[in-house]
Amino acid sequence: MKRSRKIAALLLAAAMCGTALLSSGCGESSSSHRDMTDYEASIYSPEVPESRVDENTPGEVKEGVVGTTVNYNDKVEVTLNKLLEIDDVDKTTYRVIIAEMTISNKTSEKIDCSTLAHFRAEIDGKEETGPTRDVQAAVAARRYYSTINNTDMQPLNQPIQGGETVTGYVYIFAPTSWKSMSLVYIPYRYYNTDRIVFDINESELEHYSGKLN
Q: Positive or negative, the Cα torsion across 96, 144, 198, 42?
């Protein structure tokens, strides 16, 4: 039987926000409450098949960089449009990087896309899910798009129907000092471990130095 992870995802978000409260006061203002509500509302949790691939199974790896489109087996095309760093955070302890991406479903069947399931960050050789699920990074990204006030850009948390193209963003909670970083996208997670890996270089980061709302 397939089961939904919506409740589990919301519990995870609440637990992470509890940690964020200790370090950033994310519950101290009405705007922060709205940010958290927006974050919870944006969560899309795909159903997980009962029989799914072992995540330790080696898969195909395709590599890309900012400004390139990567074709995955004529099923999915992914473009990393832009890399942005938000400067209005406590950069003595962490950094927030946003990757704006366009994903095209070239098949006739729906595919899932969720920051909770389909994205990871590889930082200094260690691949983790935490950096692309972090509440502080999610809130900073939401505030950035609210501040610039000229876009309806949303996080990549949605099903993508056959033939559909969507543009959205992924956020990364990064350490202050890092030597290497990549954004990992696993388009058919639970069904195979093939991944598209986009390298992130300091020289490619655009910076937003204004104040966030």
A: positive
